Amino acid sequence: MNFDQMEHIVTAAKEMSITKAAEKLFISPSGMSQSITQLENELGIKIFNRSKQGVTPTFEGKIVLSKAIILLSTIKELNKEIDDIKNRSSNHLKILTAPTFSAILQETMIKYNEKNSEITFDVVEENPAYMIQNFSKQDYDIALIPCTIEELKKEKFIGFEHLTKGHICIAVGKKSPFYSYEFVTPNELTNEKIVMYKNSDYKTLQKISKLNPKNVVLQTNRSSLLYELVKESQAILYLHNFSIRNRPIVLNGDIKIIPLKEETFFDLDFWLIYLQSKGLSTLAKDFMDEFKLQFKNSI
Fold first, then answer.
1. Which H helix or E strand runs over 298?
2. Distance from the CA of 249 to the CA of which of 21, 46, 209, 257 falls in 20 to 30 A?
3. Where are the alpha helices (DSSP H) in 183-281?
4. Alpha carbon of 13 to those of 34, 38, 66, 170, 216: distances in Å?
5. Tens-level pLDDT at each residue, the chain (299 residues)
6. Cα–Cα–Cα angle for 23, 24, 25, nearest 5°?
7. 3-state helix vs strand vs coil in the chain, percent to 5
8. Domains delineated in the chain
9. Which of 260, 288, 3, 24 is nearest to 161 (CA)?
10. How far apart are CA 67 and CA 73, in angstroms?
């Protein structure tokens, strides 16, 4: 049973006439009749009782028609979804990002939308520890992620482009004893109260900074709340050097960004990744040009 045959029998049943169904589908009555007869022969059943008054489904025909109606509906829904995806892909970007890029990404989207008002975005923020595996499973256009080149090379289906090398820092307010420091060591932070982004890479931070889980007093993705707590208390926030550098709360000195350092800074590489099978669309490339400009200004 093919699509045309399903459409022929469903239309004939609705019209209760092969002739009327043929007119509706813009084919000849003989062609319609032959199509239905061929299907009946293939299935080995009689779908319609035919008479001068028209056609009526047989018992077996009603069963076939019920399945054909479901299949036609499913195919139409599928075609609509495919069309929506095609239309959306030309003016829509689905982005997966680590929390560290959120502020710069937001600034980029605002500026990009000023010049391209028809473009829409779907942004998902996620813990970097799970980003690569989830990126491959979901239909994202691009992802912005901190990780090592070794991690990326393990992934056969991911293309990548290096954005920058940054380092881990803390954000503190004027009430913090570290506000006057040029850098801090992990050992100096052992007993400090900590506020964190909920989607932060907790395990990496714990390994690098000797973070004590008992000292985490708040975890949330409300960045404004995190910044306010840092500003008004002695709590610290782990982040990367460029994450909020251009925010007013940093520029006016209410919060200071201080590098984490032992013999050297704790460096991380930051990447743009995409599926090799899809590549970067024209829209994704254009948007990333704007993002890189914003990113350059922030570092």
1. helix 282-298
2. 209
3. 202-209, 223-232, 248-251
4. 16, 16, 11, 71, 68
5. 888 999 999 999 999 999 999 999 999 999 999 999 999 999 999 999 999 889 999 999 999 999 999 999 998 888 877 766 665 557 899 999 998 898 889 989 999 999 999 999 999 998 888 888 888 777 899 999 998 899 898 888 899 999 999 899 999 999 999 999 999 998 898 889 999 888 887 777 777 777 777 888 998 988 889 999 999 999 999 999 988 888 899 999 999 999 999 888 888 899 999 998 888 989 999 999 999 988 887 66
6. 90
7. 50, 25, 25
8. 3-88 (1.10.10.10), 92-298 (3.40.190.290)
9. 288
10. 10
Closest by CA to 75, choosing from 4, 138, 133, is 4
38, 100, 131, 204 from 201: Cα distances, Å: 62, 10, 10, 6
Query: What letter represents residue 266's amino acid?
Result: F
- Alpha-carbon span 129 to 200, nearest angstrom: 9
Of the candidates 9, 27, 26, 5, the one whose C-alpha atom is nearest the C-alpha of residue 17 is 9
What predicted TM-score, i.e. pTM, was given to this entire model? 0.65
Contact 252, 73 (CB under 8 A): no
C-alpha 109, offset from chain centre? 15
Instruction: Sort strands 120-125 and 158-173 into parallel, antiparallel or unpaired.
Output: unpaired
End-to-end CA distance of the chain: 62
Residue located via tokens 């256009």: 141
Q: Dihedrals φ, ψ of 56, to 5°?
A: -135, 140
Q: For residue 151, what are the contacts with CB-CB under 8 A and spacing of at least 6?
A: 132
